[in-house]
Task: inverse folding
């Protein structure tokens, strides 16, 4: 089973990816992690990527695709994989389609986590991180402004400021939303309402993915 997980910022994509990985025993392949690992291990691709990053440039799509291809060639992908954080743009989506067809690992389904912009702003700007243990809490679960785990101070990350969240949503709408349409046109797509609580979203995903071959 080969799945591409797509969702807006704040759609709970990371949480669902971790649950799907458990449920189906397939590796969760996040492009951010591949990049960090390749750079840390000093692979040829990692060194190339690092030279762009050191110049303050984005790592080009071709290079990201090469890294994803190398990752998909590892032995733990025999039963499938779950790709997360890629593609973010239409050219990346086209590149991914061409690459997966070339290496005979065609995508079975795209999973789209839909969520209203207002829900996203509320979720992300309600998020607080503990200065001490780094655990993440929502303001609704906060106890007198302290971390429920260790009691230390909770702070709002700059990335979660409402105006920054709105900017991230704008970038997402302009660059990544067209990827959803591309998937709808070229692949089986499972669309899930991710405004619901986490367990309901997971259940909807399980029902949607049950018809695929998990062997
Ligand atoms: Zn804490």
Result:
């Amino acid at each position: 089973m080969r799945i591409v997980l797509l969702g807006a910022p704040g759609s709970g994509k990371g949480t669902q990816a971790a649950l799907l990985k458990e449920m189906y025993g397939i590796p969760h392949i996040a492009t951010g992690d591949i990049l960090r690992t390749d750079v840390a291990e000093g692979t040829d691709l990692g060194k190339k990527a690092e030279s762009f990053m050191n110049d303050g440039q984005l790592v080009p799509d071709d290079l990201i695709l090469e890294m994803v291809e190398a990752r998909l060639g590892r032995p733990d992908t025999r039963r499938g994989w779950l790709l997360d954080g890629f593609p973010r743009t239409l050219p990346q989506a086209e590149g991914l389609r061409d690459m997966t067809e070339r290496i005979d690992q065609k995508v079975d389904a795209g999973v789209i986590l839909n969520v209203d912009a207002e829900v996203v702003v509320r979720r992300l700007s309600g998020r607080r991180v503990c200065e001490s243990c780094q655990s993440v809490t929502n303001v609704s679960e906060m106890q007198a402004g302290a971390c429920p785990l260790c009691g230390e101070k909770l702070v709002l990350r700059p990335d979660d400021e409402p105006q920054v969240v709105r900017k991230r949503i704008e970038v997402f709408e302009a660059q990544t939303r067209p990827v959803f349409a591309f998937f709808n046109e070229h692949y089986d797509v499972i669309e899930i309402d991710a405004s619901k609580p986490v367990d309901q979203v997971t259940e909807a995903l399980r029902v949607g993915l049950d018809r695929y071959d998990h062997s």
Observations:
- The mean pLDDT is 90.
- The pocket of zinc ion is lined by residues 130, 132-133, 135, 147, 149-150, 152 (CB under 6 Å).
- Helices lie at 13-24, 31-41, 44-54, 61-72, 90-102, 117-125, 162-186, 198-209.
